[in-house]
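Retro notes, item 3 of 5
We never archived the inputs for the flavin-adenine dinucleotide complex last cycle. Fixing that now. Sequence and ligand:
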Amino acid sequence: MDAHTPLRSRYDVIVVGARCAGAATALLLARDGLRVLVVDRSRYGADTLSTHALMRGAVVQLHRWGVLDALEAAGTPVVRATSFHYADEVIRIPIKARGGIEGLCAPRRNVLDRVLVDEAREAGAEVVYGARLVNVVRSGDRRVDGVVIEDGQGHLKTVGAGIVVGADGLRSTLAELVGAEPYRTARHATGNVFGYFSGLADDGYHWYYRPGVSAGVIPTNDGLTCVFASMPDRRFRDEIRHDAGAGFDRVLSECSAELARAVAGGQREGNLRGFPGQAGFLRQPWGRGWALVGDAAYFKDPLTAHGITDALRDAELLARAVVEGSEAGLACYQETRDAMALGLFEVTDEIASFEWDLPAVKEMHLRLSEELKGEVAAMADWRRAPEVPASRIA
Ligand SMILES: Cc1cc2nc3c(=O)[nH]c(=O)nc-3n(C[C@H](O)[C@H](O)[C@H](O)COP(=O)(O)OP(=O)(O)OC[C@H]3O[C@@H](n4cnc5c(N)ncnc54)[C@H](O)[C@@H]3O)c2cc1C
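Structure as it came back at the time:
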């Protein structure tokens, strides 16, 4: 936003946060004919601290919304297999082409989020960057009735809304302003160091496990491969963060000598990035005049690579409730979200504990796989299926 951005005085919905959760929610609401404003303090097309492996549920949603072609046009490769490495044992699972979906994909966040924002704009949503939520306004009965946003020059603007949606991430300002409390918290958290490499073979997702460490390989845009090393958050704090490069190499070597060799033979493009870990939570996701979606509402450890899939799923659940326009609809959003999230949340917390041996983590992965299958089955008959031609990815 700058001082000249012409905004209406009131919208049906104001979404705070223009990444996967916020942009997806905005595009669905705008397609349903609502007047939507999206504000984000960041800038268009910026990257963020996240790897980006999508699970099938996310690809199903992106296909349904007709945005896979744009991801394909941005050079996002199709992922046709997932390989689990338990020490030296490798279990390779081909990704079956099903329901018009040819494979999985892992677009960089500066691709995925940008494509979703473009689609939201195309559908009629107004999207303003450089605008930070600083407060909410309330009506006489204390219902949230709008926002106060601040631009880069410190100018404040008050804008009214039928509902304010916080898609503003882990440390959500909206959650804080409305006092949305977590009612479920995880016990464990993992640290993570990741980077991008050229010169590695594109052979699908690879996930590596040895007691105490984990790693992953994610093919992505521009011929690059995202490689991450993961460890208990305490180890990240005590040892890894002081020298992320040496820590990354050490954890990869502990996980798989073969992977460490392959990465050493590639070329790192850009800096490594570190995430110290954050215990997961489910927050109260709605109240009078407000709702939360994405990490703002529900965060779980990145080790199971499901946060973006959650965000897209919950964007659709929330959009449905907002269009319905009743508190019963929002209560149903929460209930459905919890029913779909809790199994994943629990098994992710167990995997993130690193308190397992290889037979135990295999059993956890079987449970995780059942949860993922259940999620896709539940989504199968969701509405919003625009007429889109099957693309290469879908
Ligand atoms: C290290 C790491 C690796 C991960 N790997 C994966 C993976 O492989 N696969 C996967 O599915 N998930 C992964 N995740 C999880 C995934 O990144 C999140 O679930 C996802 O980013 C949630 O998206 P979101 O839109 O809810 O929030 P965010 O991506 O956090 O976006 C929030 C937006 O809100 C804006 N904002 C915040 N506060 C304000 C404010 N006051 N005013 C205006 N704007 C504001 C921010 O600028 C930002 O653009 C990973 C996470 C981490 C940390």
